[in-house]
Amino acid sequence: MSKQEVAMLGQAGGEGCCPTLLTAPLDEEQAVDLARVFKALGDPVRLRLLSMIASRAGGEVCVCDLTPAFDLSQPTISHHLKLLKQTGLIDSERRGTWVYYRLLPQTTDRLAALLTRPAEQPPAATAGAAS
To answer: How open is the CA angle 67-72-73, to the nearest 5 degrees?
Structure first.
């Protein structure tokens, strides 16, 4: 995982400096990068893995604790974890034989911020509300 992969949601600069998905159109590069993250999250196995990692007490989990939760081979689980890592959603650290995974909250926070409607923006009117 490179800083470039995490930066795609970070929008270079500072926090809160850039428009959200709901306030300004994405450029082509932003859309491609964001689509990669949504594609990674669009797989049920990867979504479950991310949830298991994110919800783990202590903030990290050993791959040895993740693999038994699925009826998949260890290489398949490793492949899914690799994709989550490449999109900047998780990071890992090898300790002896085992690899421990942790959520990268800055990435999920930025993803959430992209999808959050600004407080001053009124909700969209529904079709049935027209007079």
So the answer is: 80
